[in-house]
């Protein structure tokens, strides 16, 4: 086991993916509201 360094890297990637997904959802909701309104 390489220790907390590898774990930190993995969690960093997970958090980055979650944040990107949230931003994508916000953008899509804004686009949909603009299109359907």
Based on the model shown, name its key terms.
37 residues; mainly alpha; rod-shaped; transmembrane; transmembrane helix; membrane
Folded structure, characterized:
Keywords: Membrane, Transmembrane, Transmembrane helix. The protein has 37 residues and is mainly alpha-helical. The chain has one domain. Helices cover 89% and strands 0% of the residues. The chain is built from one helix and no strands. It is rod-shaped.
Approximate shape: rod-shaped
> How far from one another are the termini?
54 Å
Overall structural domain count: 1
Along the chain, the helix and strand elements come as H
How much of the sequence is in beta strands? under 5%
Structural class by secondary-structure content:
mainly alpha
Please tell me how large the radius of gyration is: 16 Å
The low-pLDDT segments are none
User: Mean of the pLDDT scores?
Assistant: 87
| Share of residues in helices | over 70%
Please count the helical segments: 1
Biggest sheet record: none
In total, how many beta strands? 0
Keywords: Membrane, Transmembrane, Transmembrane helix
């Amino acid at each position: 086991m390489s220790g907390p360094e590898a774990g930190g890297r993995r969690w960093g990637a997970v958090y980055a993916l979650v944040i990107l997904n949230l931003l994508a959802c916000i953008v899509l909701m804004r686009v949909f509201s603009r299109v359907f309104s």
